[in-house]
Every structure is written in C-alpha cells, then in structure tokens.
Amino acid sequence: MSVAIIGAGCTPFGRYHGTTVRAEAVRAVRLALGDAGIAWSDIDYAVGGSLSGGSADSLVSELGLTGVPFINVLNGCATGSSSLLSAVHAIESGAARRALVLGFDSHPRGAFTISTGQMGLGRWYGTTGMAVTAQFFALKIQRYLHEHDLPPRLLSAVAAKAFHNGSLNPNAWRRKALTAADIENSAMLVDPLRQFMLCSPGDGATALVLCAAETAKRYRPDPVYIRAVAVRTRRPGSFEVLSPSLSIRPGHSPTVDAAAAVFEQAGIAPAEVGLAQVQDTDAGAEIIHLAETGLCAHGEQTELIDSGATALDGRLPINTDGGCLANGEPIGASGLRQIHENVLQLRGTAGAHQVARDPGVALSHVYGAPGLSGCTLLTR
C-alpha cells in the first residue's frame, strides 16, 4: 500500500464526566490535525464511526463547515479498521490527498445491550443467556484451554500484564497495576473468567490523519506506513460471538482470514512482527488471538507468556497500552486506539510504556460480533 499516517490523536479512555463524547471526538481530531501540522480545511476526505456516540459526520458543526465528504461507518468492533480501509482506498484511488479517520463511542455501565432480532437470531438466543457476550467468551475459552492443553492460570497472567501496561499509559482508564494474585482473588463472574479478566464498555475517542506515502515527509520526518488493512467475516464452521451454532466440521475464524490477508498483502511474515495489539475483550481472547493471527502456534501460548515474551521488554510485546482490559471498550474507538498505540511505538514516543526493542513491524487486530475481524500492519 502507498498510504502513510502523519497524525494521531487520542483522548483518555474511561467514563466521561464533565465532558461529552462529541467534545472528546472533536478534541481527538484536533490533536491528530495538530500532530500532522495541518488544519481541518486541509482534509479532503473524512470517515468515521460510532455505535452509541452519534453520527461522525455531524461533528462538522464543531470542526467547520468545509463541505468535506464525510462517510459514516458502523461495522461492530471492526468500525475503526473499516473506516481506515475506506480512507486508504480513497487515497490510493486518487480521490483524496489528506484523509481523516475517526472513531468514538460512549456506552453505559454493564453489559452491551444486544437486539437478537437485529443480528438475525431468534429470541431463544437471548433467553438462554448467550446474548450476554461474557457467557459466550467464557464458553469459548473453556473449550480452547481444554483442546490445546493450556493452564487456566494464563488468564491471570494476561490480565496482570494488561493492568501493568495500563498503569504506564496516561490515556488508560484502569491505571492501577494488579498482580496475578489480585486477579485470581477477584469475583468469579462466568467460569473461568473473573472480574478483572473482562473489559468494561466505556467511553473514548481516537483520530488519525492519512496522506499518500510519497508526500508524507512533507508533513513530518517520521511517518508510519500502512502496509496492509483487511476486514473479514465468518465462514462456515467458525464458532463466533452471536453465531449460535458449533459445526462438527470446524472452520477458520475470521481472525485467521483477516490476518492471513494482511500478511499476504504486505509480503511480511508473522515472525517479522515485533509488536501487536490484539482484541482482548477478555483475557482468554488474547490467548486465542495470539494463535489465530499467526503470532504463535495453538498450544504455544504457555511458553510465550511464561517466558515474558509478551511483556514490554519481551521479544513480542502484546497490548502495550493495556488493551481493552485497561482501556475499556468504546466500540467505535477501540480499533483506532490500537493503531494510535502502534504509531507511537513505531515512532518511539510511547513514553513509560515504550517497548524495549525496535519493533519494526506492528500488527493490530480486532474481533467482534457477529463474527468479523480487522487487521492492520504498520511499519516505519
């Protein structure tokens, strides 16, 4: 691909008090524009999305009525990846020179409210408890741990790493470091997932500014290049959230397809990745997605995690900003939060949570209902 990220802006995630999600979205846009050294009037294509925070294009009221084409996107947890893909296509086609990508959201306390009818499911799916996504994720990781002979203690190790990384990230919601023992002693919610192994719906906003790669150094000396972006949906046999059946003939997760697509597009092997943000709606999701993205083989997670490889000073740091566990999950903003983090890491400007080694290649991965995934590969 021939597109670069020249601006990135993110405001603190959490539960907003004394501000609004719209105000934070505008602030994220202005941070990204300032980072790129350009004005809103320089943007000639904008795209963004939010599940519950309002229409992205309506923010022109605050940003300025320039007449810019502004596309609204809503694609579940892949809203950010889908928006990014749209902007990349606009620049590559020559339809735009400088594009803004925006994700923001605001969700109330408690589990996400899901309409089974809107997902093409019968009412029975909700009445059996499966529309509470934590129930599904608990079943999925129970099965995965059993099939690949992985110890449940890995769940606490993953969560402890997330809260440690979050404690170093000024934009994280949960900034108190927790030990594996703290997590093991928290309330059991849906076996085997305890309180601190699940993320919370929350508030957040992130924005990026893109341009053609050949012009990127006009704006800043250290652009980050988008090597590939892909979004995929489920195929027969996959076992996904809000997909109510498990086939006797297992199929690939959409994560497998999305990850394979970006590695093929970029001509980069998974072994070359030096840093990754993967969807960790729960601690078990990180364990599963390490293998589904190709970063390790199924069953190798015990060695990877126990060796410290996924820590900030390890050979393959994972969820370096604390992931969803420490940042919460504002659906429209989470995917772009990951990319914002990878941009900072590749620039070497992540501050206290900067990884120890030069990452070179950074992967971001999101996964969500009803079985879709988005992956993005960035390099310097």
Could you walk me through the main structural features you see in this protein, from its secondary elements to its overall organization?
This protein has 12 helices and 11 strands. The chain is of the alpha/beta class and 380 residues long. Helix 6 (153-167) crosses helix 9.
Key terms for this structure?
single chain, 380 residues, alpha/beta, nine-stranded mixed β-sheet, 33% helix, globular
Give me the strand/helix succession.
EHEHEHEHHHHEEEEHEHHHHEE
**Shape, per Cα inertia axes:** globular
Oligomer: single chain
Largest sheet features: 9 strands, mixed
Number of strands: 11
Instruction: Count helical runs.
Output: 12
Kindly estimate the percentage of residues that lie in beta strands according to DSSP: 15-25%
Which blocks of ≥5 consecutive residues have pLDDT under 50? none
The portion of residues assigned to helices is 25-40%
Strand order of the largest sheet: 3-2-4-7-1-8-11-10-9
Distance between the termini: 13 Å
Query: What is Rg?
Result: 19 Å
Mean pLDDT: 95
Class derived from helix and strand content = alpha/beta
